[in-house]
Amino acid sequence: MAKELIIHVKDANNKKVVTAALESGVFALLLDKPESKKVKQLAKVKTIAPDGDYKLGDEFIIVEIKGKEDEERAAQLLKQGKNVIVKTTDWTIIPLENLLAQGDNVYAWVRNAEEAKTAITILEKGVKGVVLDTEDVNEIKAAGEAVNLAGENVKLEIAKIKKVKPLGMCDRVCIDTCSNMTRGEGALVGNSSAGMFLVHAETESNPYVAARPFRVNAGAVHMYVRLPNGRTKYLSEIESGDEILIYNYKGEGRVAYVGRAKVERRPMLLIEAETKDGKKVAGILQNAETIRLTAPDGTPISVVDLKEGDEVLVYTEDPGRHFGMKVRETIVEK
Fold first, then answer.
1. Pairing of strands 60-65, 83-88
2. Looking at the domain that runs over 157-326, which CATH code has it been given?
3. Which keywords does the record carry (predicted)?
4. CA proximity to 144, closest of 16, 18, 5, 255
């Protein structure tokens, strides 16, 4: 799940703090006083305040944990659907661990980037977000980087190529993100949400084509692409402003925003692979040297060089989606 960064702004006139927060991808600013109008003059930003987009003390409630009674109160608020900001006197993760079992809307009050990193990884799941209480611009930027890069990690598997079959002309989607990717990174796409290839970003150059590290040439319009919060979309539905997940070869995910998605007619390849326990993965990708899958060590492999027995990275899960959300149902996809 994508994490949320909230900055506690003690003084709405402190332009350096507000600006650093905005530049760090802040989800919202937490204000003690009704000063939302003042900070919104600097940029379009959500506020948690007495006069905010989210009402402090109603939609977001701060609970200082001094003892078991406070923890129980926080648990009750979570059960009521409230967003609970957990504040501890000596910053310990134990109350957070206990509360994460009670609900998902847990936020941790932290003092620096290191505490923020710890909070978003507690019990692997992590808190929904952090409220950073500092006026140190460097800490704000460091926390922003840690939180914004915290996506959803998955367990990637090795699959062996079983078939590479040339097809005719199809409509394919090329996703240009607003982030540069590095070698070993790409997007998860597949004919089925139950089996997806890690399609490598266009980080490699050759004598004919320059690298475009912001791009994933993702495949045919009918294919699924993995999004934050365990969701998927058809590639045909992807548009500017959407969030997608970028993964590296270790399965570590981060959020990237779509700048544009181009649909063009191109010659395609049907590629099929199988994991060691018999799970099948298939996708239809453009028949071009610049389109690559990802080897277990992160090396990009061009689809034109693929042959039976080659090993590539895939992601598998039980099938079943309804409007992009995971559901339990009996389904067979071929």
1. parallel
2. 2.170.16
3. Amino-acid biosynthesis, Aromatic amino acid biosynthesis, NAD, Oxidoreductase
4. 5
